[in-house]
Design brief:
mainly alpha; 11 helices; Phosphatidate cytidylyltransferase; EC 2.7.7.41; 311 residues
């Protein structure tokens, strides 16, 4: 079992309290919303209960369970990408091999082998994926296939695996929150940033940033959400991380901006492929990619910011 610090445990209870408030609010709004809008809101909140329960259970069971959970998350996300990309029939053997790289990447984390963790996908697989396609002998669509597969495994496996590696950082250097506190800090701020940008955009948003990609993204939403996330990052940093208030402000700013880019990037992918959601796995949310699009960008950036400033 992971060593849950009092601060990390309180953070979990706060998240659960927020879900209780959301559930009560949804119940009270049932007569004010249309049946369709109320059903979507109910589905979203119910899905959040399930997602939070699964994540918290994995974190509380222990390090191995947490690594397995994040490995499964990466596997499902990678599968979603391959299910929406125009994959060539000749590439199926290579795609199968890429699925097998998921447990290997998390094996480096379990062994706390940082050197291999940090170069395995961005260096070795980056070079081997084109070679694997060459062996298959299909040249039509070669460049698109190489770029698609490299980007897919970088975002869904390499990027997300940084969340899991937070649990391996020396716990004695973060007495306030431990590894669980670092994960909670990153994941909570990333998801909170999405909500904050949505609320600010709904309240004050008029000028759209990139209407051809995401019509709901406005300058007011972006700036308001990032400012809120930055402030919250500073306030939570001394409580859950080894960072100071001022370092937390920088981390919050980084998470706010990176989360926006991640969300917008997956929106562009869906626009290109002319789909609304990456799947229907999570009622009210869409697919795993729809839910972790921001995390794919915030995780590696926050990890290295924390690594080089606090460890």
């Amino acid at each position: 079992m992971l060593d849950l610090t009092p601060n990390a445990l309180v953070a979990m209870l706060v998240v659960l309290a927020m879900l209780v408030v959301a559930s009560i609010t949804q119940w009270r709004l049932r007569s004010r919303l249309s049946p369709e809008a109320h059903l979507e809101l109910k589905q979203r909140i119910n899905s959040w209960w399930i997602m939070v329960a699964v994540v918290f259970t994995a974190l509380m069971i222990g390090q191995t369970a947490s690594l397995i959970f994040f490995a499964i998350l990466s596997f499902i996300a990678l599968r979603e990408i391959f299910s929406i990309l125009p994959v060539r029939i000749s590439d199926r053997r290579l795609i199968l091999a890429l699925y097998l790289m998921v447990p290997l990447q998390y094996y480096w984390i379990a062994k706390d082998w940082y050197g291999m963790f940090i170069v395995f996908i961005p260096v070795y697989l980056f070079l081997l994926i084109p070679f694997g396609l060459l062996i298959l002998g299909e040249t039509k669509g070669f460049i698109r296939a190489v770029g698609s597969y490299q980007w897919a495994i970088m975002t869904t496996v390499f990027a997300i695996s940084h969340v899991a590696y937070l649990l391996m950082l020396p716990a004695d250097q973060n007495a306030s929150g431990g590894g669980v506190g670092l994960v909670l800090y990153l994941v909570f701020l990333t998801q909170f940033n999405d909500v904050a940008q949505y609320i600010w955009g709904k309240k004050f948003g008029e000028r759209k940033i990139v209407p051809t990609i995401s019509p709901n993204k406005t300058w007011a939403g972006f700036l308001g959400g990032v400012a809120t996330t930055t402030l919250l990052g500073g306030l939570l940093a001394p409580w859950l991380t080894p960072m100071s208030f001022w370092q937390g402000l920088a981390a919050g700013l980084l998470i706010g901006c990176a989360g926006f880019v991640g969300d917008l990037t997956i929106s562009a992918v869906k626009r290109d492929l002319r789909i609304k959601d990456t799947s229907q796995l999570i009622p009210g949310h869409g697919g795993i990619l729809d839910r972790i699009d921001s995390l794919m960008y915030t995780a590696p950036l926050f990890f290295h910011f924390l690594f080089y400033t606090s460890y």
